[in-house]
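Quick start: read one record
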Amino acid sequence: AICDVFTQYLEVLSDVLLDDIFAQLYWCVQQDNEQLARSGTNCLENVVILNGEKFTLEIWDKTCNCTLDIFKTTIPHALLTWRPISGETAPSTPSPVRENQLDTISQKSVDIHDSIQPRSADNRQQAPLASVSTVNEEISKIKPTAKLPEQKLFAALLIKCVVQLELIQTIDNTVFFPATSRKEDAENLAAAQRDAVDFDVRVDTQDQGMYRFLTSQQLFKLLDCLLESHRFAKAFNSNNEQRTALWKAGFKGKSKPNLLKQETSSLACGLRILFRMYTDESRASAWEEVQQRLLNVCSEALSYFLTLTSESHREAWT
């Protein structure tokens, strides 16, 4: 409601209220409460999409910095560093499960973001009562084997994972407008499958999203967020030992956790920004840096893809 009032009276309120609104949204995202955290990112997105055309250069800088701060403070670093308390063995599994069965279960992998309730069509977060599957339900899956301090830590980490994915979506929706990038992806994929490399994918990208209001430096800043999120997810997904340890400690249900959606959607959005800049005549001055970044990101992505052995992992990338 505050964001709606802000939007309605932008000219009067932006000098007075904008910093406070960003600070408030940032605060929401820091809380160990899924509803607050997701509302924070969704409200940020709505404020930017509804008002971005009227933002000054300085306000855009503040917006990018707010996004950057949220990204940096919600990367769930502890997923990579968590260790069971020394001297403790991993909780024993309920007796019906035989050792070899356990092994086949552990080979399966479940995306931490799966079964978390998606956004509604108009991009506003559903009201708490309406939420079908929320992090809280996921948290209830943590409980049987995890000890109390771990339950709290795992619950907080789950929320950070959700915020990361929401933020990737927020950047994509803000820069390109929600419908455009999905349509573009579908057409590009269809062209690639026909092997029509020269096929001109025509999507009406004119006047969609906030892309044209952002400077190249601001876009690079958002890109850095996306790539940092991507590399974190990749490091986690590659760390089989750590994922097994978390799974045995009761983190996130029956299978080993992964961050596949985060790994792939952050990269997709980053590439979308880079390729858009690379074909934009008005950004010719940034082309040298864009080209360098494109070559680095693409070669890193392709060499990583070639090392993937899991069918489902490759599938997600395809």
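Residues 1-79+150-186+207-317 form one domain.
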